[in-house]
Structure formats: structure tokens, C-alpha cells
Amino acid sequence: MKRKAKQMILISLILVLILGFFTSWFFMKKKDKDVKGKVLLWHGWGGTELENLNGIIEEFKTDNPKIELETLVVSFDDLRNKFTTASASGGGPDLVIGPNDWIGIMAQSGVIQPIDDYNVDLSNYIDTSINALKYEGEQYGYPISLKCVAMYYNKALVDKPAGTLDELLAHARAGKVAAINTGFYHIFWGIQPFGGKLFDDKGVCILDKGGFADWLDWIAQANKVDNMMMANDYNKMVSLFKEGQAAYYPDGPWALGDLQKQLGDDLAVAPLPAGPKGKSGPLLGVESFMFNSASDENNIKAALIFVQYFCNKENQTRMMENAGMISANKSVDSSNNKHLQGFIRQAETAVPFPNIPEMAAVWTPGDDAYAKALEEVVDGQQAAKDAAATINKANKK
User: Fold this and answer.
1) pTM of the entire predicted model
2) Helix, strand or coil for residue 136?
3) Distance between CA 194 and CA 212 in Å, rounded?
4) Within-domain flag for 123
5) Residues 228, 167: contact at Cβ < 8 Å?
6) Which residues constitute the domain of residue 205?
7) What does each C-alpha distance from 220 to 224, 225, 322, 367, 386 come to in angstroms?
8) What are phi and psi of 24, to 5 degrees?
9) What's the structural domain count of the chain?
């Protein structure tokens, strides 16, 4: 009898737990359905990322008829400035998708708001992605994905990818074209292998303190080698690779979907070449949803419902499979995706993207330094010195 009574008690407890779960789930879903709002999202996505985002948005609209969701594609190069200007004047979108290096400058200027007060649960997200979106202890972004540059290569042209910079030059001399974008972000990966760093712990640019100058000199000499195609021209470089003319092409996972369509089984991903002082170090960024401080509370609540919908396991798996996204959601399994595994291996030696306000002053002087190196206007040491001085002057350091 006692045993039977214990079994009945246990069954009753299980039923209570199940009932409690479904009751809370029901009221949570009902609460979401009761939220009304008109949400505007700005982003700079294209290609397969955009295709899949649009598909998920249409499904969200069907599931959430009381929330109007509109989007606007803005050139990524203009997105931050346009958002900042619009928000500062009390307008702009409720949501913007951007990298974590925007967090510091935008939080400091007051155009984005923290989401801590909305009781957002981020426990199922990678810690690195959460921390990258904090500024002065507050959470300013909802993580979407991790992004860094790695080396795409064409298996029809390369049996084994170059593991070092010397091997890359040897492959070029043997007739294998490397198409390398020399924009500061895309080619940042070579600073660490020469021992250089971008900032010290006080936000002072230290590109002139070693490493960067050597990397610039390497770039200048590599540019003279046949089949080393180097230019700050994204479209030209990716076209060379897509058309099968280039064996190597450094880029991020956002390009994966389009490159797979073009190259099929010949496409592969490996870590970028190491240098004399260590492994390659591309910038490791976290892409996120950020929330306009000018938006009212109800719109932010509606926006969060969409954000959580987009970032759930099902939709993030879809983005991984169709658009090469490395999800920040820990429940998404990418272990069987050989291309994403190449990016994950690269991320192990990547440099975390600083989200400090000082990052805003980096891009133009950085691009100029590579341009000077390629054109041999000055040597690497002078180009590095000029870049650091310009960045520190802008940041009043």
C-alpha cells in the first residue's frame, strides 16, 4: 500500500509540473499575442542572409498578426551614421543590426538603450557574445552571430591550403592566384602574426609600436609577386574567386551561401596563414540587434518578440544551413557543417572586436595605411606611425 501511495504521489507531482509548464507557456504565448506594435528594422544584409531574413519575417508576420514589421536595407557603410542621426533627432528604426564595435560609441552618444530592464533571458547564448555587447556593465545588444574572416579556397585549384605566409607566396609563384581585399577590417588578420596590436588597455592606438609596420612591408612586397591580387575592392576580389580565377580568398561566413552556390563541392574553408610571430588574428565580431533609445516601450517589447523569434533554435539553424551563420545560440549544432568548422577553428586565434568608442576613429586611417603600403608612398614604419597618430588625435589620446 505504501509503495502504491508513493507512486500516486509521484505521478501527481509530475502532472502538476507538466500542468504548470503548459500553463506558463500558454500565458507567455498569450502575452506575446496581446502585444501590438509597429516595428521598423534597418540592416545592411544582402545575398542569402537577406533572402532568409525576409523569409523568416514573413513567417513571423503570419504568427504575430498584431505586430507590423517593416524593414529597410541601408548600405552597411552608411548604416551607423544614418541610424545615429535619425535617433538623435527622435526618429529612426526601432531595431538596427550591427557589429559589437558600434556598441561603445552608440551607447555613449545615447542613441541605443540597454535591454536589462526588459528581463531578457540570454542564458542560452555563448558568453563571449553576451559580454561583447555590454558597455559599462549594461547589456546593449541581443546577440545573433559570431563573425570573423577566414580563408576560402578552391579545392579544384589547391590540394592543401597554405598554412603560412611563406607558403601562400610560394603557391602564388606556382600560379595559384590569391585575391586579397586590403580594407582594414578584411586584412586585419596579418597584424597579430607579426606581433602587433591595435589598442592598449587604455584605448590608446599602438599600431606604431611594432608588428603592424612589418605587416605593411610584407603587403608591399607581396603585391609585387605574380598572382598576388591585392586591392581594397570587395566586389573585384570576390568575383575573381567566384569565377574560378583565384584559388584563395579571405572573407567571412556571410559570403558562404553565395560562394557555395557558385563553387559547390570545390569550396573549402581553412584558417588564414600564420606569420613569423604566431597565428593569424582576424577581428572576431558579434553581430546583434540594437534598440533605438528614441523608440517607445511598447515598440521595444514588440521588437523583442521578433528578435527572440528570429534567434530561436529553428530559425538560427535555418540561417546556419542556408546563409553560413555561426549562431550565438548554444542550442544550434554546427558540428556537421564542414565550412563553418573552418571559421570556428579560425575564431580560436581571432582578436575580440573592441567595443570601445575609440574604434570609430580606426577605419579611415587604417585603410589609408594599407593604401600607402601598396602604392609604396611611404614605408611600413611611417604608414603605421601616421595611422596611430591620426587615430589617437581623433580620440584625444
Assistant:
1) 0.81
2) coil
3) 7
4) yes
5) no
6) 150-281+362-394
7) 7, 10, 37, 14, 17
8) -65, -40
9) 2
